[in-house]
Amino acid sequence: YPTKDELEKRKQKLFQVQGYASEKIRSKLRSQHALLYMRANMLLGNHYENVNFWEQTASQFIESVYKDMMKNIYAGALLKRGRADEAGRIFAEQGDWKSLMTQYYKNRSFEAIRQEYQRDANSAVLPFLLQDFVNNAQEGIDAENGNGSAGKLFIRTIVRSEAEQMMKFAGQVVSEGKTRVPALWKSAQAWLQYLYGQKQEAQQNIYTATTLNGTERMKDVARVIQLYINSSLQPVNAQFDAWMAGELKWLKSRTAPANELGNFYDDAIHRLVHQVLGEKYEKAGQPLTSLAIYKAFKSYRYEYAVDTMKVETLQKYLYYCQK
């Protein structure tokens, strides 16, 4: 740990940086120096100064990555000053899920979502809270079924009664017509229904979700959920194969390099391949199709199967792939 003298020297250095940056705010590189000024204030705990500086000065700067970073620091200062609602909206608008998780970590529940909706039916924070709730429910169900991932942080236990409250409430939100993104709520309702065994209701509601308004990402999510639900419920036949091939091609086209939050589309493919399609084709008497799917999506199960299968089976598989 640093000594008192070291902390004092650090504080004095920050004051020097703050003073230097303040003098340069009127220069050609004012956005960069303004960002440096706000960072120094943040480290010094001068949150009041950052709030005033943003509202009176930096908010009027031209749009740039530096301004976006200053606005994020401003949101943190708002949170420190007790203006949590305003801070949350900025974090949500910027897609800063880590800051939102820090802010709402102890307040993630059906009741928190209901209260936020009553405050503002189109709150920018609601998509984060709803996504977090559904993800937590999914993690819990996966763990019960032996499909959980060890080491994940911030998982909150969702009991069945709370999940059922959310299902009902999500349907109510869509019926009220106040939200601008009903696809989000209907998709959440459908996926929760599927997770908790209400599969026919889930299939009906996810179809409805794909017809409702929402952002492009929300519509993609609805389509992915519909793909998962339908693929688990429909029988394997030529029609299913043709439909699945088209959907997998679309899903593959949506993948992109993962960021710090992962990649939703890659995760969806992994879940679909390992929890539905592989086993589905094996049970339908088509183990070679199952193996081909594992290979196409670079599953660890392909390597294991090839290494352990009999020579005769491997010959059949190679012949199958040449068709």
Residues in β-strands, percent: under 5%
Radius of gyration: 25 Å
Helix content: over 70%
Order of helices and strands: HHHHHHHHHHHHHHHHH
- In one word, what is the shape? elongated
How would a textbook summarize the main sheet?
Answer: none
Alpha-beta content class: mainly alpha
DSSP helical segment count: 17
Average pLDDT: 90
Unreliable spans are none
What would your notes on this structure say?
With 323 residues, the protein is mostly helical. Helix content is 73%, strand content 0%. It has 17 helices and no strands. The radius of gyration is 25 Å and the shape is elongated. The mean pLDDT is 90.
What features would you highlight for this structure?
323 residues; mainly alpha; elongated; 0% strand
Helices and strands, with pairings:
Blueprint (H helix, E strand, L loop, with lengths): L3 H20 L6 H15 L2 H10 L8 H16 L3 H10 L3 H8 L5 H10 L6 H19 L15 H17 L5 H14 L3 H11 L6 H18 L4 H17 L9 H20 L3 H10 L3 H9 L2 H11 L2
What is shown here, in short?
With 323 residues, this protein is mainly alpha-helical. It has 17 helices and no strands.
